[in-house]
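Reopening this one. Same input as before:
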Amino acid sequence: MYLDTAYIAKTYVNEPDSAAVRALLIGKRNMHSSALCGPEFYCVLQRHVREGSLTKRQAALLREKYHEDVEAGVWTLIPMDNAVIARVESSLSGIDQKIFIRAGDAIHLVSAQLAGFEEIWSNDRHLLGAAPAFGLTGRRI
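Same output, byte for byte:
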């Protein structure tokens, strides 16, 4: 199962759909994301601190928990290496120019594609809209 950072973040912080994402993942194994997830997750935590829904201390504890979970194999992070970057570049040169896509979304889509996934889980409408151009089915709660 491949999840983008938005869905992984929902397992740590309370946001819309967090309960549904947590319920979806109960008992699941082999959950994957891109190594980009770490920096993106830190930005999610920073946003929550800025908005006042988390303290700096709470954010620090959630960063620690995330890293513990990565070490324990809860999340398998696909390296963001030169092969991923090259595939992103070649994929973007070949997709319909009407498709709205951001760099982070393209990295997630290519990471899922290269790892052999057929689906990608997210609540991001742009990522989900671009998924078919990468041969993936976008799934959401």
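So the earlier flakiness isn't reproducible anymore. For the record, The CA atoms of residues 45 and 51 lie 10 Å apart.
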